[in-house]
Every structure is written in structure tokens, then in C-alpha cells.
Amino acid sequence: MKASRNALYGGLLLLPAAVLLWTFTYQPIVTTFIDSLYSTPRGRRPAAFIGFDQYETMFADPVFWKAMLNNFIYAFATIPLSMAMALAMALLVNSKLRGQAAVRMAYFTPTILPMVAVANIWLFFYAPDYGLVDRVLQLFGLGGQNFLGQPDTALAALIVITIWKEAGFFMIFYLAALQQISPTLMEAASLEGASFWQTLRRVTIPLLMPTTLFISVNAVIGAFRLVDHIVVMTKGAPDNATTLLLFYIYQVGFGYWDTGYAAALTMVLLVILAVIALVQFGYVDKRIHYR
Amino acid sequence: MSGIRVENLVKVWGAFRALDDVSFETGDSEFVALLGPSGCGKSTTLRLIAGLEFATSGRISIAGRDVTGLASSKRNLSMVFQSYALFPHMTVAGNIVFGLSVRGVSKAEQRERLARVVDLLGLSQLLDRRPSELSGGQQQRVALGRALIAETPVCLLDEPLSNLDAQLRSEMRNEIRSLQQRLGIAMVFVTHDQTEAMSMADRIILMRAGKVEQSGLPHEFYERPATTFAARFIGTPPMNVLDLAPGADGLVIEGGAGPAVLPAGSIPLQLGLRPEQVTFASAGQPAVVETTEYFGADTITACRIGRQRLMVRAPGRPGLKAGDAVHLAWETSVQHFFHKESGLRCEIDPAAPAKKTRVAETTPQ
Ligand SMILES: Nc1ncnc2c1ncn2[C@@H]1O[C@H](COP(=O)(O)OP(=O)(O)OP(=O)(O)O)[C@@H](O)[C@H]1O
Ligand SMILES: [Mg+2]
């Protein structure tokens, strides 16, 4: 009697959160999956059940594969680089440094700017002939580059922006984690004769592993989720060189209004993110020492 | 030669002088206790010796070598931190050999030295555990192991026993002391527990508010405390320090009706008496019993003389109760005299005429 009452109260307490989670997370996933099994309704022709046809189309779609490839290049370039920079910056601003607060501020500023504003700033930086980057290159006789217009530099140009923006954000997490590490541990390491690099490799980085995991999950999700700067800067051009998965979904769904196909693409994105999260929390987590 | 020599050490933080002209010297392979109340600068002194902090002025030399400006890793010493400072992500073995491995000692030698240290400390069952899976005493032994494996001639310990319970504490005391003697290394041991210092140390350095109050051998602290502070810091219960006042035929204990302690003199004085050297007698200094505390082997009785309080530690059960009128007696040879204002020890022969009374040359340190 009492147990069932407890279960009732427990259930009631969980209900608000569960309702929200279901309505805005799981229900859309289920609906998206169902939609992906139907054709896109056009005019008076309603959606018809077509099984996995959308997925077959997808595997034959070169733009999809291009978007996937771009996205993986984008993720594997931005994540390690921005995290390494974040750690370096955090170590720097965590040391006893003159003007520490100002440097922290400077590093964090890109993060608080809206992505659309950042994209516009960088549009100017990258502008051919009069843009900042091109001006500098002109000094070395390498001017006249249209970074965002050339297929072989466009993605790299976006990657640089993302690193510039994300590193400051990740730095805050590393900084908070560094400040949690007891200074006596560092003193013990230095007393034992460990150099800066030995201390970093054998003490600091292992102790930061939980933070690294947390940041990398966020970074991966970010890498598959970011579209604002593509919409503002390149719209996937030139020749789909900067089309990332989510941008392609956006284009298919709201540009071509092919909602059935967009639903199928969304399912793929979801599966990719779910697999990455599972690997990170299931496998990597077990190998990290939590205090 | 592995002695530590500290000369005129000053450490200032902002306007706060944490250490004010501290000097002392320790002998070869001595066990030195750095004793004092909380906040007196013990840890600061130790950290300066270790090179974790740098002195505002003054010199530190270890084994005859000036190390004042040297980085801690170059000072050839090891340290056990107050909080142990074990690396939480490493196993016990990893923690102990950390110093050897960063210094590039070969794997074979690491294993051999690890086996020796682990044997010494009885940690062989725990090598694969992480610090969070160890008890406080075990963690403490790991920290000690990490310090000992370096085989440095000097080992610094900052209150390593403060987190342990009474039982484990006395076990570890003996263990550390016998290790130090077996290895023949010098140890500097910070503590605020006087019994720990008295029972373990070859030499005690008593600090107070950033200065050395007295430095010497344990029996000197007991027999000839240099100041009332030192007198009150050593002993359980601590020494009774009573004000003296002019009486009928000399100085008497203020508020008391007892016989004169000293012929009348000019400087205001205090009398120091160790509780265990005062006895209940049929005649002597009258006093009233206030409370008694029974400990089995002995009883500590608090007595009142006028407005002053005095503890007596007598063997067995004297069978007194609150309100009883008693007489206290003691040998004149166990009396200590202190200058009332400065608290400094005065060497006085009670039998000699009053004018010979003088403040002793035993200024602090
Ligand atoms: N980094 C610091 N900045 C300013 N003041 C400090 C600093 N470190 C210590 N102090 C001050 O110096 C004094 C001595 O500190 P210390 O840690 O040496 O005391 P301690 O004798 O070890 O005390 P405890 O027995 O409580 O450990 C204290 O008053 C403390 O507040
Ligand atoms: Mg301390």
C-alpha cells in the first residue's frame, strides 16, 4: 500500500519534466521518423507511405555525401584545435599574470558575440582585395584571394571562424576545472622534480579529463548543429564546398520544401549524434578517473 | 652533514609579517619538531625551506649549501604535505614512483626501490588502489612512501598526523620516528601538538607569531622554559604561572596566605610550577579545591589560591572534593621565575638576597 503510494508521488513529481521532455524531444523524434517513411505531400497529393525509399534516395544523393564529408572534416578540424587552444588559453590565464582579468575578457569576447554578427565581421576579414586577411597576404605578394569563393579554401575559412569563436567558450570550462585542482598537487609535482610539460601531461591533463569529455561532447554536437554562419556567409557555396549536414537539411526542408526527405536526413543526423554521445559517455567515461 | 641552517628569515605578505627574523640550526640526521599554535608561521617556514615559497629576506642552507634562491626540485629534499597531496588519478604505486619516473630513473631501479619502500611501510597489498580507495592512515603512508623513495637526506613533514585518530596517530608516530632513525635522514616535522613534539623530537623549535620563542632539546623545554609562553605550551596540564605580590616577609603568591616564596624584590615576578611537582601536604600554601578529574593513574585537581587557579597532578586518588581546604607544597628547586611584563625567564636563587635577582640572558632563541 505504502509502496504504491510512494510510486504515485514519485510519478507525479516526475510528470512535469517527463511531459516536457516527451513533448519537445521524443515526440518530435518519433514524428520525424514516421514522416521519413512517407513521401512529401505536394498540392492535392497527400503523403503516401513509401517505406525506406527516402533513405535509398539519400544514399544515392551526392550532395548528401558531400555534406557528410564536409561535416566530418569540419568536426575533426575544429574540435581538437579549439580544445587545444582552449586549454592553452586557460593555462595562460590561470597563471599569475599581469592584466589577467583583461586577457580572460579578451579570450571570452568572441563567445558572447552572436554568430550572425561574427559571420559579418569575418565576411569583411575575408573580403578579397580590401579584407584584413587579404591585405596581410598582399604584403607577401599573395593577395587577390577570395577565401569564401574558392572551393578549396571556403571550408577552411569557416573552420577558422568556428575555432576562433568556440575556443574562448571552452576555455571557461577548462579554467573552472583548473581552479578546482588543488595547488598542493602542483607543488608536490614540482617538488618531485617534474617539469612544466611533465606536470601538464601526467597531472593536469589527466585531472582535466572529465572536463575534456564534457567539452568534446558539446563540441561534437556544436559541429553538427552550427548553421548560422553558413547561412550568412556562403549558403553552401561554392559548389557545395561548405554544405554541412544541418545546412543541407535546412535547404531541403525549407528551401525545396521536400519535408519527407528532410525528415530522413534529420534521422541520420540524430543517429550520428546519438552514437557519438553513447561512445563518449559509455566507453571513454569508464576510462576517466572521477574523484 | 645534512643539517638545515636558517638565518634571519623574513616573509612578508603585503603588510603582514608572517615570519619575522627566524633563525635556527638543526644537526645531522636530527628529528626536529617545529612547534607552535595555529597561524604562528610553521607551515610558512617549512614551505620556505622546501622552496615552494620564497623569502622576503634571509638565508637558508641545507647541508652547507646555500639554497635560498634555488627551485624546490633542486634542493634535494622531499616533503609530506598536510593534505597528503596524492595524485587522485594514479595508483599507489604510480604515486610513490612519480618522482623517480619524472627524473628518468630506470624502470628496473624504480621497481626495486618501490619494493623496498612498500615493504618498509606495509603497503604491498594496496599498490593498485587509488588514493580515494584508501583510509586516512594508508594515504598518509603512501605520502610518506613518496617522500622516502627519493632517498633525500632531508624530509619535511607538515602536520602529517593531524587527520588521524588517536590510536593510529600514536602508531604512526612510532613508525615515523623509527623510520627516521633507521634511514638516518633529517626530518623537520611541523606540529601544534606538544606531546608529539616532546615524545618524538631530538630538537624542538617553538614558534609564536612569526618568531622563534625557544629552540632546544625537549628536556630543556621542560626544565628551563625560556618564557611563560613556552612554559604554558609544554606539559599536560601546562605549567601553572602565578602572579607574585609583596607580602609580610617577602614575595608571596598573590591572594594567598602562604609562606614567602622569595625575599622582596623590585621587579614584578611570576612563579611557574609544574602540576606534577606540586604535592598535597599537611602544611604549606593554603588553597581550596575547585574540581577534580580522575584519569586512573593520576588525578588532576584544580585548586584556587585567592583569585588564581593552580593545577595539581597527583598519583592515584587523593580523595578530595570541591570546597576542601588543602595545603600545597613543592621543592624550591622546581620553581621557575618569569619577569611579569616581558614573560622572560629569570634565574633566581630563592635563598640568595633579593638584590641579586636579574633577568636571565636566555632571551628567545
Ligand atoms: N599566501 C598567504 N598570504 C597571506 N598571508 C598568509 C599566506 N599564507 C599564510 N599566511 C599567513 O601567515 C601566517 C602563518 O601561516 P602558516 O600557514 O605558516 O601558519 P601555521 O603555523 O602553519 O598554522 P597551522 O597550524 O594553522 O597550520 C598566518 O597568519 C596566515 O594567515
Ligand atoms: Mg600549517
Structure description:
- The complex is a heterodimer of chains A (291) and B (365).
- In chain A, 75% of the residues lie in helices and 0% in strands.
- Chain A is mostly helical and 291 residues long.
- Chain A has one domain (63-287): MetI-like (MetI-like fold, Orthogonal Bundle), CATH 1.10.3720.10.
- The longest helix of chain A is centred in the N-terminal third of the chain and has 35 residues, at 2-36.
- Chain A is flat.
- Chain B is elongated, with a radius of gyration of 24 Å.
- Chain B contains eight helices and 21 strands.
- Chain B folds into two domains: 4-224, 3-Layer(aba) Sandwich (Rossmann fold); 229-354, OB fold (Dihydrolipoamide Acetyltransferase, E2P), CATH 2.40.50.140.
- Chain B has helices spanning 42-50, 92-102, 107-121, 136-148, 166-183, 194-200, 218-223, 228-233, and strands spanning 4-13, 16-25, 31-35, 57-62, 65-66, 77-80, 154-158, 186-191, 203-208, 211-216, 240-247, 250-253, 269-273, 279-281, 285-294, 298-305, 308-315, 325-329, 336-339, 345-347, 358-359.
- Residues 354-365 of chain B have low confidence and may be disordered.
- A six-stranded mixed sheet of chain B has the order 6-7-8-3-9-10, with helices on both faces. A six-stranded antiparallel sheet of chain B has the order 12-11-13-19-20-21.
- With 365 residues, chain B is of the alpha+beta class.
- At the A-B interface, helix 8 and helix 9 of A face strand 6 and helix 2 of B.
- The complex binds adenosine-5'-triphosphate and magnesium ion.
Radius of gyration of chain B, in Å, reads: 24 Å
Number of helices of chain A: 12
CATH architecture of the largest domain in chain B: 3-Layer(aba) Sandwich
Quickly give the structural class of chain A. mainly alpha
Structural class assignment of chain B: alpha+beta
At the fold tier of CATH, the topology name of the largest domain in chain B is Rossmann fold
Oligomer: heterodimer
Envelope shape of chain B: elongated
Strand content of chain B: 25-35%
Any idea what the radius of gyration of chain A is? 24 Å
Interface with most residues: A-B, 20 and 23 residues
Number of helices of chain B: 8
**How would you sum up the major sheet of chain A?**
none
- Largest sheet entry of chain B: 6 strands, mixed
**Strand arrangement, largest sheet of chain B?**
6-7-8-3-9-10
Unreliable stretches of chain A, pLDDT < 50, 5 or more residues? none
Give the overall average pLDDT of chain A: 85
CATH topology of chain A: MetI-like fold
**Which CATH C-level class of chain A is it?**
Mainly Alpha
The domain tally of chain A reads 1
